[in-house]
UniProtKB/TrEMBL annotation:
The lineage of its organism: Archaea, Methanobacteriati, Methanobacteriota, Stenosarchaea group, Halobacteria. Keywords: Membrane, Transmembrane, Transmembrane helix. The chain crosses the membrane at residues 6-31, 43-64, 76-97. InterPro entries: DUF8036. This is Uncharacterized protein. It comes from Natrinema salaciae. It comes from the Archaea.
Length: 100
């Protein structure tokens, strides 16, 4: 099915994979901080990370399994990729300041 994937969906899929990696790093840090400090804030951040992690994994699944949803609409494909770019930029900044 990946062969039928358009270039914008390929970009969206790759960015979702990057987001998964960033979210794993963030979630591990936040869970470690929660275990150390027991703060509700760090528990909330850990749940935020898990939720976004699941969202990105589900997105990758749907990009591969239901490509036909976006197949006939380059505008929609580009919009999906643009949203993934914005999420990746936000997560990159968050990962940088969290890991620092």
């Amino acid at each position: 099915m990946a062969g039928a994937m358009g270039p914008w969906m390929l970009v969206a899929t790759l960015l979702s994979a990057v987001n998964v990696l960033l979210l794993v790093v963030l979630t591990v840090i936040w869970v470690r901080n929660y275990r150390t400090f027991g703060s509700e804030m760090t528990a909330g951040l850990a749940m935020f990370g898990v939720t976004l992690l699941l969202e990105n994994v589900v997105a990758i699944y749907f990009f591969f399994s239901t490509g036909m949803l976006y197949a006939n609409s380059p505008g929609v494909q580009q919009s999906v990729a643009t949203l993934r770019v914005l999420q990746t930029v936000a997560l990159a900044f968050l990962t940088y300041v969290t890991a620092k």
